[in-house]
Amino acid sequence: MIILQCIVPAVNNFIKMRSLRTMTLAGNEKKVPAPQLLEMAKALSSDLRLRILEVLGDKPMSVTELAKLLGFAQPTVSINVAILEEAGLIETAQRFGRGKQCSRTCDSIVLELPRSYGDISEEWKTVEMPVGMYNEFRVKSPCGLIGQNGLIGQVDEPRSFYLPERSGAMLIWFSEDGYVEYRFPNVLPSEADYKAIAVSAELCSEFIGYKEDWPSDITLSINGREIGTYTSTGDFGENKGAYTPSWWYGGTQHGQLTEWRVGADGSLLNGQPCSAMKINDLGLEREETIVVRFEVKAGARNRGGLNLFGACFGNEQQAIRLTFIR
């Protein structure tokens, strides 16, 4: 048995682990059985999530307060709070006069290591799709694709979206309305029971150059079923993206990490209810592939285009992630 102490110093965040033959834990502790180790490891594998746990050690806070204190966008904090809540490390509750507050559930964690083969079953699996590996699209100029070394094809030329080099794209964009569609493999066995499925990506609106206050309604659908619409507040170019190449300047720099999650009771967008679509409505057991579409509809109130970021652009080191949870 290993004791994982949730201690995150302000200067150098780390997890301190130590083995003890005899153990006595003071304070509030959480016991993690072997089948939940992978979920717990995922929850603790992010510096931002450790910082959230750190600041919640002092007092409960709202997502808005956390975002302001930590210097991250509110949707990004909401997603990470949802992951910590899923792992049982924090809980959210309505506090009179203060809105919805987040609080830490424990001060220490006891991990039970597996004793024999089969004690751990895979609780989640993620497939990451490069942004240029779309199967279908409909885009309008201005539009374009950027790879690690520069422009792919010609800027503002929709025909460039057919080029085979598109597979190496790290940033794609189009204006007004349109869509890009991806086909993910269903990597779980046909008899697997799904608890939830989640799609996450860094994205934002599209304006020539950039415009911080340019909204766009971006709808995600899975297997032709609409999950929910995220309204991006702008096309962000004032601050350099953490992973944006140094040679890229004067245009879009980063987006906002956004997650749609479909579970047994409905769908969530960045941790908040967005539709009644349920996991059983997606027909996952019947589909050979899972079709994911990012779309700005022609009839949308805010037809502000779309920027979609890969692992080497923006603030998040990821492309489009499809996560299976069972």
TrEMBL record:
CDD domains: HTH_ARSR. InterPro entries: ArsR-like_HTH, HTH_ArsR_DNA-bd_dom, Metal_resp_trans_reg, WH-like_DNA-bd_sf, WH_DNA-bd_sf. Gene3D superfamilies: Winged helix-like DNA-binding domain superfamily/Winged helix DNA-binding domain. The keyword Transcription applies. Residues 39-151 form the HTH arsR-type domain. GO terms for molecular function: DNA binding; DNA-binding transcription factor activity. This is ArsR family transcriptional regulator. It comes from Paenibacillus thalictri.
